[in-house]
Amino acid sequence: MNRPNVGAQPIPASVLGMAASRRNILRGGLVGGALLGSSSLLAACGGDDGGGGGDASGAVKFGMNEASGAGPAHERLVQVAEAYAKKAGVTVDRNEVDHNTFQENINTYLQGNPDDVFTWFAGFRMNQFAEQGLITDISDVWPIDGLDDSFKQASTASDGKQYFVPVGYYPWAVFYRKSVFEKRGYAPPTDLDELTTLMTKMQSDDITPFAFADKDGWPAMGTFDILNMRINGFDYHMSLMAGDEEWDSAEVKQVFDTWRGLLPYHQADPLGRTWQEAATSMGNEECGMYLLGTFVVDGIPDLEDDLDFFTFPELDSSIGATALDAPIDGFCLAASGSNQAGGKEMLKYLGTAEAADAANKGTTPLIAANSGADTSVYSDLQKKSAEVVQAAENIAQFLDRDTRSDFASTVIIPELQRFLEDPDDIDGVTQSIQQQKESIFI
Amino acid sequence: MTTTTPVPAETTAEPVTAAQPPKRRLPARDRAVVITMILIPTLFVVVLVWVPAILSVVLSFGAWNGIGDVDQIQWVGTKNYADIVDIYPPFWPAIQHNLIWLVFLFLGPTLLGMFLAVVLDRNMRGSRFYQTAFYMPVVLSLALVGFIWQLFYSRDQGLINQVFGSEVDWYGDSSVNLWAVLVATAWRHTGYIMLIYLAGLKGVDASLREAAAVDGASERQTFFRIVFPVMRPINMIVLVIVVIESLRAFDLVWVVNRGTNGLELIGALVAQNVVGEAARYGFGSALAVIMMLISTVFIAIYLRIVFREERR
User: Fold this and answer.
1) What are the residue boundaries of the ABC transmembrane type-1 domain, all occurrences included (chain B) (predicted)?
2) What kind and span of H or E run contains B194?
3) Mean of pLDDT values over A230-234
4) Digit-coded pLDDT (tens) for B112-142
């Protein structure tokens, strides 16, 4: 996620979005050039002595996936690290890394000489590290006061043990501007009929119903997720993600077919647009709604007070609208970290309501996972996010967090883009995904 | 030349080589120096070029996510190659795009750069200024070039669409984005070629031109009949640069959309498959090997030309 301050600058959002990811090119080049054995070499150098050693009172190394300049997301982590250092009287060495760089190096990082505690995501991506023994079993940290069963579930790997401490989450929903809806007399829809009526009305008012962007490849995954959950249900979605269903099945084709029907109500040419640009076009009333995570606020910060959202309406009454994407962010303990005991102590603190309060001083759309956290400082968007997620029966993480990351990035991204380019070739797209899926999920 | 003199016994022992200069034996110290001087660079080449290249080839027959030791690698035979060719949709477009890149770079910016060099070589007024202006983009990294052109190309907020009131999705529409990116590359490549060629032109002996002028050759004749053939070494360098640039093209498309949707290039596909959590080292290596094979073809052609020239 890039967090540019669009409203304040004359430079197009797309450009700002690119600035943050420029460093990737270097990374890409380096990794591409040295793709051989670098990780195994680093693994050999890394401390194997990290097993059980370390003294709880020693310094804890804290790996952060945000660097200064990243705005609120970075501030939160700094605040919570400082609060812990003060409370426990230990030194917390922060290792601040740019978000994309952190993501791209994670394999090498964890096998080399990682920090003790590091920022990570719940779900499949946590599970894969747990299975590979790269992160430490922290089931003795659980249960944590204020974190209910669903969070415990999200922190549990396939071996039934916990490897993760959740700190916050944000929902994906349909955002709109309250003032625009009021002025034009629109109302949030709850089913397909109402949605269609609303979209047609918007079009007659010369407003594109949905803002849409997929230049970076991942935003369209959010649309696929929600359509699949509305049409085929949460359970089917999760087993599709796990690789247990066929991608060229009638169910998946149905999703693409529905999507094709909705595309005329979406902004044209999404493949050249960044989500920041799409957010801007909702901001200036060219578009009426935008399906995105709450970080959409970062794209149009001046309009935060005017933003509201509704969960995507139901498409099939037998399925309902009870599931949504709400990715959970949190922390793991690296197995090769040198201070395991100190890391666990810190993780214990990070799960508490106190830590959530320490973090939640900046303005940010994230909601604290801990139910004991002070919600009085929340903005309206945060309060509503919390309600919506609590009301949801099933929560998915997001396509690239629920399935193998190599499959998501090297297959799904190009195929979804191909579909958006030529929505009529559903058979070709689904067949190609299925073939590649069979090759990757061994 | 060293002071060592030929040993007569050796010359008589090998009458066949009599036509060649007689063999010399270096003193032990000189020999040690020569051996060290050959050994160290060889070692570097082997460790930094051959070992990784061979390991890439080995790895391309396996499936490995880079986690754990090498014993985690599952050997899958030629499956990676079969998958690339059969079921990996970005592959063939990538090959095609690399070739388009090569042809375009050569026909467009390379010829334009050479033309600009010839024009600027005529010492017209303000030629310093033009040189600087054309060379300026070369100083910028390709990443930055992509960033600057985004200001022109953005569909909703870009300069081109604003000025002409058009709605072309320059970076997003897969039928135009390759050309949009090529124009951005050309902007930088032209200045690069221009500078190299200009340097070459300055090195051409002025008396050759004078002689041609005395013989009554026109400007055009002078260039094509006299200057261009004399510049042969520079022409070769330019050709090699164009080939290298188009094979390793990567940064610009990576900045734009990470090499998807109409901007597939082999280099970008390799990176997509090995960068980040999505580590398909085997698959990525197979792509890298294919890229290496393609490069080898060009290297072979180049070496043949160079050797043929030396023999002459």
Assistant:
1) 95-302
2) helix B177-202
3) 93
4) 999 988 888 887 788 888 888 888 888 888 7
Q: Convert the pLDDT of each residue in A353-388 to its tens digit.
A: 888 888 876 556 778 888 888 878 888 888 888 888
Q: How many angstroms separate the CA of residue B101 from the nearest CA in chain A?
A: 19
Instruction: Encode A397-414: b = buried (16+ Cβ within 10 Å), e = exposed.
Output: bbbbbbbbbbbbbbbbbb
Two tokens at B139? Answer: 């100083």
Q: Which of B246, B212, B214 is nearest to B229 (CA)?
A: B212
- Domain residues for the domain of B146 are 90-279
Per-residue pLDDT at A38 = 36
Give the amino acid at A437.
K
Instruction: Determine the Cα–Cα distance for residues A192 and A198; give it in Å rounded to an integer.
Output: 10
Domain ranges of chain A: 47-169+329-383, 172-325+404-440
Of A22, A111, A405, the CB nearest to B277: A405
A172-325+404-440: CATH architecture: 3-Layer(aba) Sandwich (3.40)
pLDDT of A99 > 50? The answer is: yes
Inter-residue contact A254 to A231 (CB < 8 Å): yes
B124 min Cα distance to partner chain A (Å): 38
- Residue A217, sorted as left (phi over 0), alpha (psi -120 to 50) or beta, turns out to be left
* Mean pLDDT of all residues in A147-156: 84
* Cα gap B126→A195, rounded to integer Å: 64
Q: Are B192 and B244 in contact (CB under 8 A)?
A: no
- Does domain A47-169+329-383 fall under CATH 3.40.190.10? My reply is yes
Q: Is the distance from CB of B2 to CB of B26 less than 8 angstroms?
A: yes
With cut-offs at 50, 70 and 90, classify the pLDDT of residue A231.
Answer: very high
User: Number of A:B CB contacts under 8 A?
Assistant: 180
If one counts the domains in chain B, the total is 1
In a domain, B303, yes or no: no
Long-range contacts of B134-138 (CB under 8 A, 24+ apart): B134/B190, B134/B191, B134/B194, B135/B191, B135/B192, B135/B194, B135/B195, B136/B191, B137/B187, B137/B188, B137/B191, B138/B188, B138/B191, B138/B192, B138/B195
Which residues in chain A have their CB less than 8 angstroms from residue B250's CB? Answer: 28-29, 32
Please tell me the distance in Å from B253's CA to the nearest CA on chain A: 10
Mean pLDDT of chain B: 84
**Are B83 and A273 in contact (CB < 8 Å)?**
no
Output the pLDDT for position A88. 84
Mean of the pLDDT values across residues B292-302? Answer: 86
Contacts of A108 in chain B (CB under 8 A): 66
In this structure, is residue B271 part of a structural domain?
Answer: yes
A47-169+329-383 shares its CATH topology with A172-325+404-440: yes
Closest Cβ opposite residue A272 in set B147, B171, B271: B171
Does the residue B8 lie in any domain?
no
Contact A32 B275 (CB under 8 A): yes
Any A CB within 8 A of B173 CB: yes
Q: For residue A372, how many other CB atoms are within 10 A of its CB?
A: 14
ipTM over 0.85: no
**Do A37 and B74 count as a contact with CB atoms less than 8 A apart?**
no
Does B94 contact chain A (CB < 8 Å)? no
Q: Among residues A33, A124, A116, which one has the least CA distance to residue A81?
A: A116
CATH number at residue B235: 1.10.3720.10
The answer to whether position B302 is within a domain reads: no
Helix (H) or strand (E) holding A208: strand A208-211
Q: How far is A8 from chain B (nearest CA, A)?
A: 15
